[in-house]
Amino acid sequence: MPCGACNSLRLSSAPAGVLALALLSSLSRCSLLEPKDPAVSVLSPYFGTKSRYEDANPGLLPDPEAPRRDPELLEETCTPVQLVALIRHGTRYPTAKQIRKLRQLHTLLQARGPGEKGADATGGRNLGAALANWPLWYKDWMDGQLVEKGREDMRQLALRLASLFPALFSRENLDRLQLVTSSKHRCVESGAAFLKGLWQHYHPGVPPPDVADMECGPPRINDKLMRFFDHCEKFLTEVERNDTALYHVEAFKTGPEMQNILRKVAAILQVPVSNLNADLIQVAFFTCSFDLAIKGVKSPWCDVFDTDDAKVLEYLNDLKQYWKRGYGYTINSRSSCILFQDIFQHLDKAVEQKKRSQPVTSPVVLQFGHAETLLPLLSLMGYFKDKEPLTAYNYKEQMHRKFRSGHIVPYASNLIFVLYHCKNAKTPKEEFKVQILLNEKVLPLAHSQETVSLYDDLKNHYKDILQSCHASEECELPKVNNTSDEL
To answer: Lower CB count within 10 Å: N or C terminus of the chain?
Structure first.
């Protein structure tokens, strides 16, 4: 529900008491709008998939609308002819499941006895009491929906990309943009917000029309591409619905690192340790991240944890992503080959059209999905793979791991393929080259660490996936042999 008329409520500028009263007395959802000046926290680098885009890309903070040109980007003799972007939705509200857990924790804090509500053992501020009185502003209706900050994420990304690739995002190409999105509201809304950012680029100061009235029309929903995991029976059976698939996640929750945090937080909040569990600790940690990302407020939830705690909780989140979306099981990544092949079908078509001196049908292809869309695809391509698997028992050995989801897929993360037409100064031969960008930075190729590849070489490297990975076969469950050898 848009709340654009309520920008006058600047949450970060109000004293805590005034803030609490304002929020408690207001029945308007518009009071949930965040300020423009984001707060900072030492915990911010460790929020995993709940990370703000600007925390993973801090160069954007001075001016989030200014294009950031990576010096590795090709120029001079090469002209970009197509851009295919896979974009995670912008900042969102917590899911209803997370909100229920937070409500459970909040109720636990409010139920503490009178003797537990004084100053803590060090004579300092009683965090348990502060959090019991801190307004619980998350409601069930929010359930993962895009927030105003998420629309800003998308609008600003559109402005930066349009400035970075002006020929592709030209006004004349607007009706040739191809937009695909997951059916989830936050993705559909992200696509619409991106289009409005493009409108702002073309028509500064002119209010955008409804997305349905724009030349390219609204984004097209395609869950088989953007939520391929929902359509893969093998993944659903062997990972999603399999209680043992996340063994290492559950084992880490009861391991020494998490148990230390459990005891520490119980002492800080002055509640019995038996009333807490790893899930409640994690939701408290994420509440700090949601308050920061959505409202720009550094709430008392952030004071419960230090950076050592945050590193452990980040690892818990990364373990889940690793085993459910990354390298933990082969089907996680192989289920994404339908999306990988779709990307190369767009690139193939652009190459063929360019060779025939025809206009490229879709100079810009934008696909809006989830962290769960991007991580399997990046794993399929061989990115961020550590020498040893992430397990419940090697936390210390994995302190410098490559697989850190907050650095890879924060809110508004984006994986971009740029196809170039290049003319060789020495020979009349024309070439097609590709660069891959992750979060607007050139991503060295997983197999060569080069920052650019001939298109044919890239296709050759991934020929197994492009030719042999068929989602229908990959996702088919093994047939059960019902014959018996018994006499």
So the answer is: C
Nearest to 476 by CA among 236, 227, 245, 240: 236
Determine the Cα–Cα distance for residues 88 and 57; give it in Å rounded to an integer.
15
Same domain, 6 and 58: no
Q: Of 32-41, 86-95, 195-204, which has the strongest mean pLDDT?
A: 86-95
Q: Give me the phi and psi of 266, to 5 degrees please.
A: -60, -40
Angle at the Cα of 458 (from 453 to 461), degrees rounded to 5? 135
Q: Do the domain assignments include residue 484? A: no
Residues 404 and 306 in one domain: yes
Q: What is the pTM of this model?
A: 0.88
- Per-residue pLDDT tens digits for 407-464: 999 999 999 999 999 987 676 788 999 999 999 999 999 989 999 999 999 999 999 9
Give the residue numbers spanning the domain of 6: 1-33
Q: pLDDT tens digits, residue range 4-24?
A: 333 322 333 333 333 333 333
Give mean pLDDT, residues 76-89. Answer: 94
**pLDDT, tens digit, 9 for 90 and up, residues 317-329:** 999 999 999 999 9
Residue 442 parent element (H or E) = strand 441-442
Number of domains in the chain: 2
Q: Say if residue 127's pLDDT is above 90.
A: no
- Assess whether 9 and 25 both reside in one domain: yes
- HSE on the CB side for 34, CA within 13 Å? 25
| Average confidence (pLDDT) over 246-254 | 97
Q: Is 461 a catalytic residue?
A: no
Single out the catalytic residue among 89, 370, 407, 421.
89
Contact 161, 200 (CB under 8 A): no
DSSP one-letter string for 53-118: HHHH-GGGSS-TTS----TTS--TTEEEEEEEEEEE---BPPPHHHHHHHHHHHHHHHT--GGGSS
- In 329-416, which residue ranges form alpha helices assigned H by DSSP? 330-334, 337-355, 371-380, 405-408
Q: How many helices and strands in the chain, by DSSP H and E? A: 19, 8
d(Cα 186, Cα 444) in Å, to the nearest integer?
30
- Could you tell me the CATH number of the domain that includes residue 425? 3.40.50.1240
Under 8 Å between Cβ of 253 and 278: yes
